[in-house]
Amino acid sequence: MEAEKIELQGPTNKALHEAAEKILIENDLGGYSVPNRDVYPFQWNWDSAFVALGYAQFNLDRAWQELETLFKGQWDDGFLPQIIFWKDNAGYFPGPEIWQTNQQPRTSGISQPPVVATILRQLWEQNQNAEAEEKVKQLIPQVFALHRWFASFRDPLKKGLVVTTHPWETGRDNAPEWDEAAKRVDTSNVTPYVRQDTKHLDKKMRPHKEDYDRFIAMVEFGRDAGWDHKKIIEESPFRVADVGMTMMLLRANRDLLVLAEQFGFEGEAEFLKNQISLSETGVDYLWNEEKQAFCSRDVISGESTGIISSASFLNFYADVGSAEQRAATEAHIDRIAKVSQFLMPSLAPGEEQFDAMRYWRGPIWAVVNYMIATGCAEQGLEKWADKIRNDTAALIKIAGFSEAFNPESGEGTGGTDFSWTAAMWLHWAGK
Ligand code: GLC
């Protein structure tokens, strides 16, 4: 059955634009943005990258600054952390005293999806002037070091994939893709802890205790390994090749290559070309023949997760897949559009693990929609690009700048006044 079209009444686009700008300004804690002031009171890696796109619509200097502050958290080996703990805040767990990464500024010990090169290219291409040239030239080596870090410490199979050692690193914290692999994580020795997230938000929206124990056990595993990333990728009980990060890194490598060639970083260009061609064939390791979709794969057991999540649709964004693989992916979009009021649910209604309110097990995320729609538009799938963008705009009209959205009712899930949702409105959905 075709989903019914919802008639929207709500704030005008102009009012939403103003509200979105206000959110970004209020979530600025001094040259960096927090995703949300209560639940996430520090700087988050991929959130900041998307926030820069939002800022670029009304304050370009501030957009550049967002990336510059993010890279102040980069480690000497190129690693770019998931969180930078600029100021103390007792309302978040696990804080720096749990991670113990021994860095200045204080950071967590895992990374996040490397979208920053793609966004750097966008900022540059939107506004090419002498000042922007200076900024882009400063950032290229730092982004390049990050991509090298991924190649060195997150691609043990040397296939151009991203193998993650913590679900938080993927940005899709409690996605069902991690369920089986995370069972290998021993939680019997987890230090007792008190969650903070469920103090801010309804428990039904947040990961279950069992998942949280595993998240913390994996943090303690990294901490006990002294955040030695070589040791961690070799010995972690959780190692999954993530379809989402792999596709995002592939695109980011292409974008960085364009910048490297334009600005004369020839040495880097060779490395990037190699990585790109490795990934172009490497992604076949993620193809699940039975499901006819790109799915994350557990590299310890070698088993495909067989889960078709919203990340499975990022192959268009990465411009990979044979004609058959692309057609099969499109057929899945068509199928899901028939069972979900709005696209693109993080997991489709009807799937066994689907939960319309629980974070990455159903709700829709504006940034993921943006990437899927961008890929669809680039591949000539305008119908889906438009639908995903219209749905995102509709959700924001219904529920405001929520962290995520229930794919069936459109209601907001997670925190409110969310930076990256506001940024996606300004940059894309509200245009
Ligand atoms: C949650 C999301 C993650 C995001 C963070 C801050 O942990 O799963 O993707 O970066 O919140 O918004």
> What distance lies between the first and last C-alpha atoms, to the nearest angstrom?
30 Å
Distinct helical segment count: 17
| pLDDT averaged over residues | 96
Compute the number of structural domains.
Answer: 1
Query: Can you write the helix and strand succession as a string?
Result: HEHHEHHHEHHHHEHHEEEHHHHEEH
Strand content: under 5%
Quote the CATH topology: Glycosyltransferase
Q: What is the 3D shape?
A: globular
What proportion of the residues is helical, as a percent range?
40-55%
Q: Which sequence of strands runs across the widest sheet?
A: 3-4-7
Low-confidence stretches: none
CATH class: Mainly Alpha
Structural class: mainly alpha
Largest sheet, if any?
Answer: 3 strands, antiparallel
Q: Evaluate the radius of gyration.
A: 20 Å
CATH architectural group: Alpha/alpha barrel
Q: How many individual β-strands? A: 9
Bound molecules: alpha-D-glucopyranose
Secondary structure layout plus pairing:
Blueprint: H1 13-26, E1 43-44, H2 45-55, H3 60-71, E2 83-84, H4 96-99, H5 116-126, H6 130-153, E3 163-164, H7 179-182, H8 197-200, H9 209-224, H10 229-235, E4 240-241, H11 243-262, H12 266-282, E5 287-288, E6 293-294, E7 297-298, H13 315-318, H14 323-339, H15 366-378, H16 382-399, E8 404-405, E9 412-413, H17 419-429
Helix pairs in contact: 1-17, 2-3, 2-5, 2-17, 3-6, 5-6, 5-11, 6-11, 11-12, 15-16, 16-17
